[in-house]
Amino acid sequence: MIYAFIEAEKANFPVAFMCRTLQVSPSGFYEWRGRPASVRAIADGQLTETIAECHRRSRGTYGSPRIHADLREDHGIRCGRKRVARLMRAAGLVGVHRRGPQGCTKRAETPEEAADDLVGRRFQADAPPTVGRGRHPAALLGRLAVCRGGHRRVHPHGRGMGHGRPSPR
User: Fold this and answer.
1) pLDDT tens, 78-104?
2) Can you tell me whether residue 146 is helix, strand or coil?
3) How would DSSP label each residue in 2-48?
4) What DSSP assignment string belongs to 80-116?
5) Domain residue spans in the chain?
6) Cβ 75 vs Cβ 57: under 8 Å
């Protein structure tokens, strides 16, 4: 992996500089360049060609699990599903995905695209709110009782919360 990077960048930087920076020996890099491809690399290349053919026959719809099954059943090739996935990823082969849940609401790009307001909602208030300014909403209905300790309780029938005292109205 490091040697492949050095090979790709040797036109831009000196090999000795890159080897020193990446902490590898220049002799190791030159030995790697002259080394023939491994048996596994050759097998991966042949398998990638077979995978690409299976993918083409499926009109680009099969992903790695189906390609793996196709290789096993039709071609008699036994290999791991993750190896097939790795080779497909390296070759840029992707299967078709199921669609996820589609949202119903879409934001309008321009005001002309926005839907008409069929309900006729009003988003501007005629006056500032009067409930909740200085008085509790339940106190406006006469249902607020002040108990010991200053706790306010709302009684459903407008009476106090007991304690033998009438509710302050």
Assistant:
1) 999 999 999 999 999 998 887 777 777
2) strand
3) HHHHHHHHTTTS-HHHHHHHTT--HHHHHHHHHSPPPHHHHHHHHHH
4) -HHHHHHHHHHHT---PPPP-PPPS----SSGGGSPP
5) 2-34, 39-91, 135-169
6) no
